[in-house]
Amino acid sequence: MFDVQAAFPDIEPIPQDDGPHPICAIQYPAHFNMVMGYFRACLATEELSERTLRLTAEVIDTNPANYTAWHCRRKCLAALRKGLAEEMEFTTEAGGDNPKNYQIWYHRRAILDEHFGKKEDGEEELLYVDKVLEEDAKNYHAWSHRQYIIEKFELWDGEVAYVEKKIDSDIRNNSAWNQRWFAVHLKASKDGGGKYSARGEVDYALEIARKDFHNESPFRYLLGILQECWCGESKVNEGEEDVKKLTGEVREKLAEMKDQGSSHVHTALVDIATKEGDKEEAKRLCEELRDKLDVIRAKYWEKQIQKMGGGK
Amino acid sequence: MGSQKVKFTVATSTTEQQEDTEKEIAPFYIDLTKLTGPNLAHLREVGLLAEDGFEVRLLREKHVKYLTGGLEKLGSGYVSLDASRPWIAYWCLHGLDLLEAAPVEMMPRIVDTLGRFQNATGGFGGGPAQISHGAPTYASCLALLLIAPSYPKAYDAIDRRSIYKWFLSMKRPNGGFMMHDDGETDVRASYTVIAIAKLLNLLTPELMEGVAEYILQCQTYEGGFGGEPGNECHGGYAYCAVAALQIMGKLGMCDLEGLKGWISRRQMGFEGGFAGRANKLVDGCYSFWQGGAMAIVDAYEGDMTEGGFGTGVTEYVAEVGEEGADVSATTEAKGPISGELSFDQAALQRYTLLCGQHVEGGLRDKPSKARDFYHSCYSLSGLSVSQHGSSKDGVPLVYGDARTNVLKPTHECFNIRVDRVEKARERFKDDVCNHDDLIS
């Protein structure tokens, strides 16, 4: 336990300058006021010392969202050239099982940026992220941090396999689908000669889509890949003829799923029919979506139909 | 109104949570006209139903009381928001302003307190002696600008020049902005800078350089925007991206069709409210983040001026132009096609009024969650957007009791009232807005 008052005998704490009648006035507990009083004093003197570093830990313990304390902490660390494995441990402690606060995640990044460069450091950090994702498979910050690590430490090789495991355990984990997109594209740009196999991605998406026709994630992934093909993206490994063939095949396979009553199948078919200039079919599909399959979006579909020159 | 629950053939933790949420919501969507005896008496007593009908009501007075309380003393539990006090001020004040109840007598105190959060080096911190941060800067400026028409000293409290310099100092070579010195870079930062710069007439070409290009990298294959390039698209970040692009006049640079499709798919078939991401749950705060983003896109495309859905509103005016008309029934009769926005405005209002309101005042994510100031602000903001659409001078589309439910129109890009935005524009239009002069 760090005794704040004993550590700063020479420092006069600075009370919060809130004025006589502040709004949104939080009734601070005495301990909070004491810790913050010393912290403000350290900020005022710009003392970047061991004791200030320990004080920031106390401030963060009272309020982990105090970004000024994290900021000051990094300044102290830089001035003291501290052992940084320890700092990651501190941050893990401060974050708990399912951290959703910007400060904690940014701190990890800043520390990694400043001091780590070895692949093993990145791999170790991925283990931390794994743990968080086991707790909450859709933690937004964790996935974002994962992308940062994978890119920085060049760890994309195992990522598609990792994501497939995540999708296997919940085919509706849309964060995992997004991560697949990220991993496939990053790998292509780094060591795939800039290209990836659109057919491989299409096959995977269709395989998962068939398990549950009502799951939006694989359908949008599928369309994302096709759209990249249609735009003639240089990232795609398929030539123009292959793209036509692939699109036709996907359209056929989706058409086979049409009687499943899935709005996602229909929506995907609208996109493809529109692309292929099959206006009548696109309109018919939109009408079914508007009237039957997807009535909450009736207005959206009605507008699409009107754009195609129809509508009520 | 749509009422399609989730369908699935493979049960996963996602479908389980979704089913639980639908079960939680279902009791709120019973046919109110079939209520009798103590149930009906209870709903009338708490004020959720009119004494003389079955239209659901906005608990205006209770929300005013709850939000006014947020501006006064807060319990010790709020220390976790000690770096977000300007947010609390903004959430409460904007909610009150939509309810036409911003507390005039408190305005000198508001200016005094927020003034203490402003740093000489530019920008606002979350409290006194906290370093400047994009979010408190955004919230403080909005709070000041929304009270300023009633209390002009609030305009003078904002140091434009130092804010401009601070904004510039947060800019990164990739066109993004940091939230604070040595802080994270994401589209929240881009939006807070661009929105405040626009309101204060500081939106110079120098400040905007590369900003749209950074934001555009955040649009994903699904059509929405994530917080950083590569990240999953998400309602909060998508709003920031869309609003910032629109303010800069660059919304047309993104994939608009993809964007509209993604936002519209986020409205939940049974609940009527919005979720933040695909395969996630409904949450009242997305009423604004998603609903507001759609209103921006619709305004951009000028849908209402081209006829089509504008006509729905006109018909509605003719039918319920008189006070006390049965608005709810009218909305129902027209079905989800009414209103000019590209989502189901009536269904969203129904979710907000029936599932979002705490009977003691304040609004919430969903019925099983506690009320808070954040969800109150954004639920009310979403309600305002879905009432007024992207036209601000037409007659609103009101679900439930039109005598109690109409809010003031909020500006979909800034989320303060439209009249507050106009006043700010007037106030700052002649101030210096030239890079070289601003940094001199």
From TrEMBL, chain A:
Coiled coil segments of this chain: 236-299
Keyword Repeat set for record: yes
One Gene Ontology MF term: protein farnesyltransferase activity
Swiss-Prot/TrEMBL cofactor(s): Mg(2+)
Top-level taxon: Eukaryota
InterPro entries: Prenyl_trans_a
Keyword Transferase: yes
Keywords: Coiled coil, Magnesium, Prenyltransferase, Repeat, Transferase
GO cellular component: CAAX-protein geranylgeranyltransferase complex; protein farnesyltransferase complex
PROSITE patterns according to UniProt: PFTA
Species this protein is from: Triparma columacea
Gene3D superfamilies for this protein: Protein prenylyltransferase
Transmembrane segments: none
Entry similarity comment: Belongs to the protein prenyltransferase subunit alpha family.
EC number: 2.5.1.58, 2.5.1.59
Protein name: Protein farnesyltransferase/geranylgeranyltransferase type-1 subunit alpha
From TrEMBL, chain B:
Enzyme class, broadest EC rank: transferase
Keyword Isomerase: no
EC number: 2.5.1.58
Domain Prenyltransferase alpha-alpha toroid: 58-416
Keywords: Metal-binding, Prenyltransferase, Repeat, Transferase, Zinc
CDD domains referenced in this protein's UniProt entry, alphabetically: FTase
Cofactor descriptive note: Binds 1 zinc ion per subunit.
Gene3D superfamilies xref list: 1.50.10.20
Catalytic activity line of the entry: L-cysteinyl-[protein] + (2E,6E)-farnesyl diphosphate = S-(2E,6E)-farnesyl-L-cysteinyl-[protein] + diphosphate
Record InterPro entries: FTB, PGGT1B-like, Prenyltrans, Terpenoid_cyclase/PrenylTrfase
Any one Pfam family match given in the protein's UniProt record, by short name: Prenyltrans
GO biological process: prenylation
One GO MF term attached to the UniProt entry: zinc ion binding
Cofactor(s) annotated in UniProt: Zn(2+)
GO cellular component: protein farnesyltransferase complex
Subunit architecture: Heterodimer of an alpha and a beta subunit.
Family under the similarity heading: Belongs to the protein prenyltransferase subunit beta family.
Function text: Catalyzes the transfer of a farnesyl moiety from farnesyl diphosphate to a cysteine at the fourth position from the C-terminus of several proteins. The beta subunit is responsible for peptide-binding.
Protein name as annotated: Protein farnesyltransferase subunit beta
